[in-house]
Amino acid sequence: QCANVCPVDSIKEVYEYGEVRQAIEDPEKIVIFSTSPSVRVGHGEEFGYPAGSFVEGKMVAALRSLGADYVLDTNFAANLTIMEEASELVERVTKKTKPLPQFTSCCPAWVKFAETFYPEILPHISSAKSPIGMQGPTIKTYFAQKNNLDTSKIVNVAVTPCTAKKFEIQRGEMNISSVSNGAEDMRDMDYVITTRELARWLREEGRDLRDMPESPYDSLMGAASGAGVIFGNTGGVMEAAARTAYYLITGENPPEDYLNLAPVRGMDGIREAEVVIGDVPLRLAVIHGLEHARQFIKRMADGGKNYDFVEVMTCPGGCIGGGGQPKTEVPMTDDIRQARIRALYDKDASMVVRYSHKNPDIKRVYEEHYIKPLSEVAEELLHTRYNDRSKDLGAAGMQEKPADAFSLGKRWRRT
Ligand code: SF4
């Protein structure tokens, strides 16, 4: 099934929930949904709620009503991503293990853009998989073992704000070969359905989100800290990573002003901040929109400032403005984006646990499964690699490429 989502009919929206529905109808299958941070502040708009309404409990109930065997929170894996990504950053900064700055890796559209246009910066991109990239293998190993589930029967479904995630889960590297003995079809994540697809599916079944009760996530991978919640906002990954990097460097939780890192918040296309953690200075940048990423890369190539950590998200406002989110107004307005952003920051501010490293479920998964960040098993299941796709551009594309971009790998390394 597909439908047009583009006014010039060049992009089709692919509906995959029919296949998920078939999996639910198969008594042999165990269908596990995992919901991304932004879905809960967008989904309500499809059912008449004001922009930014926080409908987490009703969304979980809706998934249960469709026949989910388990409903888990990808915010858990957002915390896991921070544990791995912040640990990698601290190693790069303190041990010079890899070049700086470190770029974030959780936006598949940004990663593919870099692979295609700037392959020389791939060593700068964190090897940490995205939250859904970590959620998948953790479900098929740890969660399956803890619940005595047959891994081969698990069907992992990510509910995301993002159409690019449909491509991401099909990358060859997103395959948990270590538990599948190399079986090619043992994918980390089996399906991605978007916020809009979920709403369409519910309407087809005659269900209205407004009639749903509140339901909690299932345990083990259903708890998250505020640092996972804000992943959906531009700047959220940076802010969450800064909180845990502080802890990793100093052994203490950060002071109050780190909990609301104002300079990395907002809607400017490129935002910067400098923080000092212990005696380690960190120069941070947050970018949303690939045109802003291009400008930033050019500025760096032209001999601009050095940075330590750079977050790039493709969609305006971050994932809250993703291509799979409701479009009650076309084009989407900044008012709608800001309402969703506020809802996630408000939720974070209201939470008792706001650090990834303090999430009890995260502590447990390391104690019982991953041992510690960047351990051998963590590297195997939670990290990935990237491919040079510059050949996709052909000869013409290579000529258009800014010549100075080729020197980035050398010039960006701090000495
Ligand atoms: Fe997907 Fe957009 Fe989020 Fe990138 S910023 S992960 S493209 S929703």
Task: Describe the overall structure.
By secondary structure, the chain is an alpha/beta fold. The chain has one domain: Rossmann fold (3-Layer(aba) Sandwich), CATH 3.40.50. About 40% of the residues lie in helices and about 10% in strands. The protein contains 17 helices and ten strands. The protein has a four-stranded parallel sheet, sandwiched between helices. Strands 5-10-9-8 form a four-stranded mixed sheet, with helices on both faces. A two-stranded antiparallel ribbon has the order 1-2. Helix 3 (about 75-95) packs across helix 5 (about 130-145) and helix 3 (about 75-95) crosses helix 10. Iron/sulfur cluster (SF4) binds near residues 161 and 314. Iron/sulfur cluster binds near residues 109, 162, 164, 315 and 318. This is Hydrogenase. Keywords: Iron, Iron-sulfur, Metal-binding.
The strand line-up of the biggest sheet is: 4-3-6-7
State the end-to-end distance.
Answer: 53 Å
- The CATH topology, please? Rossmann fold
Spatial shape: globular
Q: Ranges with pLDDT <50 over ≥5 residues? A: 1-10, 402-415
Mean pLDDT: 87
How many structural domains in the coordinates? 1
Number of strands: 10
CATH class: Alpha Beta
- The ordered string of helix (H) and strand (E) elements is EEHEHEHEHHEHHEHHHHEEHEHHHHH
Q: How many whole angstroms does the radius of gyration measure?
A: 20 Å
Small molecules in complex: iron/sulfur cluster
Proportion of β residues? 5-15%
CATH architectural designation: 3-Layer(aba) Sandwich
Helix content: 40-55%
The count of helical stretches stands at 17
The major pleated sheet works out as:
4 strands, parallel
Question: Which structural class should the secondary elements be placed in?
Answer: alpha/beta
